Each structure stands twice: as C-alpha cells, then as structure tokens.
Amino acid sequence: MEEAGPGLDARARGELVHGVLAKFWARVGDQEGLRALDDAGRQSLVAAAVAAEIEAHPHRALFGAEFWRLEQTRVTALACEWLAGELERPPFTVVALEEAFKLDLAGLPLRLRADRIDRLAHGGELLVDYKTGRAKRASWEPPRPDEPQLPLYALAREAALRGIAFGAVRKGECAFEDFPKGIVCGGESVEREAEWRTALPMWRAELETLAREYLAGHAVVQPKDGATTCRYCELALFCRVNEAGPLAAEDEEVADDAS
Ligand code: SF4
User: Fold this and answer.
1) pLDDT tens-digit profile of 15-37?
2) 220 part of a folded domain
3) Residue 170: which CATH number?
4) Beta strand 161-168 with 108-120: parallel, antiparallel or unpaired?
5) Parent domain of 207
6) CB burial readout 123-150, b (16+ within 10 A) else e
7) pLDDT, tens digit, for every residue of 56-114?
8) Structurally, how many domains does the chain consist of?
C-alpha cells in the first residue's frame, strides 16, 4: 500500500497541472490566442481552468475549502509562469491534447497518450510531455532509456514529428528540455533535422530489442544504475539481486530527486 501523507501526493498535483494546461489550450488554441490576452485575461482564464479542475477533482471531498483555496492560488501562479515562457517561442498551434496512439513495437502492442502536440511555424510537429518533477534529456538516451515514452511516441508519429520535449512546469524553473536541442525556441536548422533523422532509427532499434526481450521473457537481473535502479523496488528478495554482489553506490542526484 502507498504511504499516506498530508495533502495531494506528487502525482495528483502533477495531474492537476496537466488538466489545467489542457483546458487552457483547448480554449486558446495557439500562441496568437495567448498573445492576444493581457496578463489579467490570461490569469482569469487560467483561474477558471483551475477552478473547473478542482470542482471535478476525485479527492474534492477529502480536503477543506482552505486547502483548495491554496491549491487554486498555487496552480494558477504556476500555470501563468509556464505560459509566460510559451510567449518566448516562435509561433505554434496546439493541434492535439491528450491524444491516444497505438504502436506495434516488434509484436508488442502498446497504447500511448501524448499530453500535447504543437504544429511549429517552420513545419512539422513537436510532441510535448509536461513534467512537474525532474526532466532530463539524458533519460531518452540508449541503452535502455530511463524514460522511453517520448521516443515511443516519436516512432508512432514518425512522419509528422520533428522533435520531442519535456515541458518542465516547476516553480521558478519552467523550461523546455527538448530534442533536438533548440527545436522549441530556435528557428529552422538543417543540423537539427539531421540529428532528428539519426535518432529515430537508433531509438527504433533499441526499443524493438527491449520489446523482443520482454516478449521472450528475458529477465536478466541487471539493474541499469545499480542501487539507484533498485531504490524503490520491493522485489529484491524475489530477484536475489544481492546474491550477485554489492550494488554500485547510489547516484546522489537521483537520491536528491526522490527527497
Ligand atoms: S530489486 Fe531486482 S527486480 Fe527490482 S529493480 Fe532491482 S534488479 Fe530489478
């Protein structure tokens, strides 16, 4: 069972922010629409989206009015901070929100859901995944990428996409973590296009290998980052990872993330 704690947990707080931004973009549609709003107009639309999310929240009855008032203030300020950064980008149109995909990966059927897809001014689409926790470009790198979701979306929508990005929605640290680097805020670039075209077959080869191994029941006990990988896993007695010898020490940064 998950441990109980005060207030909403990190996942529920993240879902609230996702819901608010989806509602906002469903209403506003593109950067031009965002630009047409002054600060007060933007804040008012965001506040209405937060209020609607809170009203429909599955844990609405668990907390009192003061708690939700504080959440309303917090999420409104955070979403407005995020949207201020969206004004710094070249023009874009939001063409999909919470879109579902299916992907057959070397015989492994997968169902995926993308937070958002933008059409970029210089052509092609950008897939955005909001993160209210840590977001690192390195987590897409083979071998055995830590967070393969965006590379998987890229394979599912290969023909149209030109890049992927984590949208880090964190107080004081709102930013895009994109690949190819600069696809969000930079202009057109032949180098970025070439980088993207190189990454796709590399991701396909890596992820198809993992899918084939999964389908074949390949389950070698080989934690990618030693003790860091096993930190939150409760299967050590079952997999007997400790019988192979002591695991490498924990990565300090990941340990910090978890705190
Ligand atoms: S404890 Fe075992 S099953 Fe869990 S992550 Fe580590 S190696 Fe994998």
Assistant:
1) 999 999 999 999 999 999 999 99
2) no
3) 3.40.1350
4) unpaired
5) 92-214
6) ebbbbbbbbbebbeeebbbeeebebbbb
7) 999 999 999 999 999 999 999 999 999 999 999 999 999 999 999 899 999 999 999 99
8) 3
Do residues 164 and 202 both lie within one domain? yes
Does 201 share its domain with 113? yes
In 3-state terms, what secondary structure has residue 91?
A: coil
Over residues 193-223, the pLDDT tens digits come to 999 999 999 999 999 999 999 999 998 999 9
| Beta pairing partners, 45 | none
Residue 110 sits in the same domain as residue 188: yes
Q: How far is the CA of 247 from the centre of ligand 1 (A)?
A: 11
Q: How many helical (H) and strand (E) elements, i.e. helices and strands, does the chain have?
A: 9, 5
Last residue of a domain, one of 86, 112, 145: 86
189 Cα: distance to centroid of ligand 1 (angstroms): 42
Q: Which residues line ligand 1 (CB under 6 A)?
A: 221, 223, 229-230, 233, 235-236, 239, 241
Q: What is the pTM of this model?
A: 0.88
Which residue's CA is the nearest one to ligand 1's atom 6? Answer: 230
**Tokens standing for 239?**
């997999």
In a domain, 222, yes or no: no
Pocket test for ligand 1, best of 146, 220, 235 (most atoms within 8 A of CB): 235
Atom of ligand 1 nearest to the CA of 221: 7
